[in-house]
From TrEMBL:
Its EC number is 1.11.1.27. It comes from Marinobacterium lutimaris. Belongs to the peroxiredoxin family. Prx5 subfamily. GO terms for cellular component: cytoplasm. This is Glutathione-dependent peroxiredoxin.
Length: 158
C-alpha cells in the first residue's frame, strides 16, 4: 500500500553525489525539521522526465523556495552517478538529485512501478509530494502524464 498524507516517510538512505563520490543521506538527514518538495520520475534521461518534469522544477525552483520550501529533491531508481549527470545536463543546481539505486525508497513508500515487461525493471511511479518535518502533507501520483506532479501543480498547492 502506498504511503498516504499524514504518514511519516520510511527510513531509507538515498545516494547523492558529493565532491568525492556518492554520499549516503537518510530520510532523516534530508527531511527532519524541513519543508521539502520531493518528486520522483520513472527514470533519468527518459523523454517525459527530461523534456517536461525535471525542467519544470528547474524553472520554478526559486518560486517554490519562496513559498517556504527548504529544499527540492528529485529521485529516481537510478544510481547517484546517473542522477548527478542528469542534473548537470538539466542545469538543476537548485535541486538535490537523490539516487534510489535499488528502489529501496520506492518500495518502502509503496510507490514502485513494475516496468519489467518493457525491459526497464522496477522503477518509481511518477509523483510529487510536500513533506513537512518528515510527514507527508500532499501526495500527487500520476498514472499517465505529468499533470498531478508538475512543478506548476505543486507551486499552486504551496
Amino acid at each position: 500500500m502506498a504511503i498516504q498524507v499524514g504518514d511519516k516517510l520510511p527510513s531509507v538512505e538515498f545516494k547523492v553525489m558529493g565532491e568525492k563520490g556518492p554520499e549516503s543521506f537518510s530520510t532523516d538527514d534530508l527531511f527532519a525539521g524541513k519543508k521539502v518538495v520531493l518528486f520522483a520520475v520513472p527514470g533519468a534521461f527518459t523523454p517525459g522526465c527530461s523534456m517536461t518534469h525535471l525542467p519544470g522544477f528547474v524553472v520554478k525552483a526559486d518560486e517554490i523556495k519562496a513559498k517556504g520550501v527548504d529544499s527540492i529533491i528529485c529521485t529516481a531508481v537510478n544510481d547517484a552517478f546517473v542522477m548527478d549527470a542528469w542534473g548537470k545536463a538539466q542545469n538543476a543546481e537548485e535541486i538535490i538529485m537523490a539516487g534510489d539505486g535499488n528502489g529501496a525508497f520506492a518500495k518502502a513508500a509503496g510507490l514502485e512501478l513494475d516496468l519489467t515487461a518493457g525491459g526497464l525493471g522496477v522503477r518509481s511511479k511518477r509523483y510529487a509530494m510536500i513533506v513537512n518535518d518528515g510527514t507527508v502533507e500532499l501526495l500527487n501520483i500520476d498514472d499517465k502524464g505529468i499533470d498531478k506532479s508538475s512543478a506548476e501543480t505543486i507551486l499552486a498547492a504551496l
